Amino acid sequence: MSTRVKPLLRKAGLTDYEANAYVMLLEKGALTAKQISYGAQIPYSKVYQTLNSLEKKGWIEVTRKRPSKYFPKSPETALKTAKAVIENEWLKMEKMVADELLPLYAKLKTKEKYDVWLLKGTLNIVSKFKEMAKDCRQEMLIALPFIKDEFIMDFYPLLNSFVGDNIQVRFMMLEGLNGNVYRTLSRIGEVRCRNKMFGGGAISDGKEVLLLFSDERGEISAIWSDHPGLAALAKDYFNYLWKESEQRTLKPATSLS
């Protein structure tokens, strides 16, 4: 293992013993606990604790035969799991701190004007949507003409944080939505579909609005504003389309989560 990798594995949530065991499994393949203890220089008294922790964190798998053997998951899969855990913990911490400190900030802040921003580039648009989602306290309305599985995987921890927080979430999508995507969104909020959609966006608490549109070259841009009049207009239009949209009926299946 290179000297650069081990510190990065620690940042991803692994201890030194766990990093040594995981890298050894990548190099050698399936091994028993005794072989891992010897090869990765982990005291035998600590090897099962190390391997159980790695399994819980989603880095390895284990057969329940005797003797048990341990297999590494792909680094890509393991890192996605670690990222989701870290993001969930961060969201919980961020919400607790915000709930405590935002009221203090609100007492100091004097609103003189409302903002209207033009956002270009996927990174800037996604960043603004994440800010809106994190600040949301009551209702999030999301309309998207198309959506990919990868989008859900990236945003699932953030969107799933709404569950149990008494935040109402409604998704309006284009017909033909992937069944697994539909089921995953349905676990977070109500989903309805339309046969036509002209653009999309998001509305948070009826106070912030993010409107998506594309130019003649197909490049996506967005307008964000905290102007109450624009947010109210966007919400009214969303509700108008919502009434004419339909819910889908799907057979049970495993979701993307």
Explain what the structure shows:
With 257 residues, the chain is α+β, with helices and mostly antiparallel strands. The chain folds into two domains: 5-78, Winged helix-like DNA-binding domain superfamily/Winged helix DNA-binding domain (Arc Repressor Mutant, subunit A, Orthogonal Bundle), CATH 1.10.10.10; 114-243, Endonuclease, Chain A (2-Layer Sandwich). Helix content is 48%, strand content 19%. It has nine helices and ten strands. It has helices at residues 5-11, 16-28, 33-39, 44-56, 75-108, 122-135, 149-160, 179-186, 228-243; strands at residues 31-32, 60-62, 69-72, 116-120, 139-144, 168-174, 190-194, 200-204, 208-214, 220-225. Strands 4-10-9-8-5-6-7 form a seven-stranded mixed sheet, with helices on both faces. A three-stranded antiparallel sheet has the order 1-3-2. β9 (208-214) and β10 (220-225) form a beta hairpin. The radius of gyration is 23 Å and the shape is elongated. The chain starts with a helix and ends in a 14-residue tail after the last helix. Mean pLDDT is 85; it is low at 251-257.
